[in-house]
Amino acid sequence: MNIPNFFLLVTVFVLGGCSFNQDKAIANLDFSRIERVRDTPVYNLYFSADTDILGSYKSRVGEKLMCALADDVDFNLDHRMKYFAQGAVARDKTQPGFKFVSQIIFNVSISAGASERALGTSELKALLSNKEYVACRFLVSATMTNTYFSNVMYVPVVRIKEALDGK
User: Fold this and answer.
1) Which of 18, 99, 131, 157 would bridge 92 by S-S if both were Cys, CB 3.0 to 4.6 A apart?
2) What's the predicted TM-score (pTM) here?
């Protein structure tokens, strides 16, 4: 390879590297409420953001809200939490502005992260008994870009327990 072709190749890689980052502000999320969906393990978690978290992304693969139910708050995609809640995120069309809802399920990872099961009410209450809040983050995965993470949102455990009790 001659020198001009080498520099051209290096320039293409350097400029291509710029496309690996989403130029989006890191969103601040604010918890609103949580409620159980009938007699199912699904809960609607409502929150707002200071920016449009579902806005334009290049080649979006998926988005979700992820919550750490225990002391492990490593949200990286290559890490599997033992106790977590997660769910897809959609706009809350009943409210104006950047209002969102996530249908989450409280889970425990089993078989070294190979599968998961929904936590029962008593299991979840026991797990949360010594906690004041649960840390959650919104994330978007996309091809050819870094994963987008919001700032941490804190969900009061007392509100989760009220939802567990149907209040």
Assistant:
1) 99
2) 0.82
